[in-house]
Design a protein that fits this description.
mainly beta; elongated; 6 strands; 0% helix
Length: 174
């Protein structure tokens, strides 16, 4: 499956923190694409045994841009003390692939053997630019700025193996 889309989100929140009341509103526009794949095959090696492979994977690449506006006031007063303006850019790219190889055997005596080998790989890359500008109310004068730049790489590899053997221990039916 493929997805090429632009998304729009609006967020509004009021919170109380450290004696302050903060009213926040943010508009976010997301622009990106994603591609997903899932495929598999089973090979019947004999009437009692099956070999199989399943592959899942996805690619995702998107940029989210948000404009935020917050008023900051003391919880004891009604007058706004500061205004926070922020315009964030968040670039995200992910890739993952998961592979399962499996073998199943069963005989006429109701003995069953199952073996699974799994490998998974996930890679994520995120860069964020988040400038925060604090202004006085009237006239609006820049009081301070706090600018964050973040880079968050993530790599995960997963390898697992499992074997199951089943048989009827007491030849009893439950």
């Amino acid at each position: 499956s493929n997805n090429l889309a632009q998304t729009y989100n609006f967020f509004e929140m009021t919170r109380e923190q450290s004696g302050l009341e903060i009213d926040q509103s943010t508009n976010t526009v997301g622009d990106g694409f994603s591609q997903n794949l899932r495929t598999g095959i089973d090979y019947y090696a004999s009437k009692n045994s099956i070999l199989g492979v399943v592959i899942n994977g996805s690619l995702n690449d998107e940029t989210n841009t948000s404009d935020g506006f917050s008023t900051i006031r003391s919880q004891q007063g009604n007058a706004v003390d500061q205004i926070l303006r922020s315009a964030n850019v968040d670039d995200v790219s992910t890739k993952n692939i998961f592979v399962n190889a499996n073998y199943r055997y069963s005989d006429s005596s109701d003995h069953k053997l199952g073996i699974d080998l799994d490998y998974g790989f996930y890679q994520g890359r995120r860069t964020t630019f988040q400038p925060n500008y604090y202004y006085s109310t009237e006239p609006q004068t820049l009081l301070s700025e706090v600018i964050y730049r973040m880079r968050a790489p993530l790599d995960i590899n997963i390898l697992s193996a499992k074997a199951d053997y089943e048989f009827n221990l007491w030849k009893a039916a439950f």
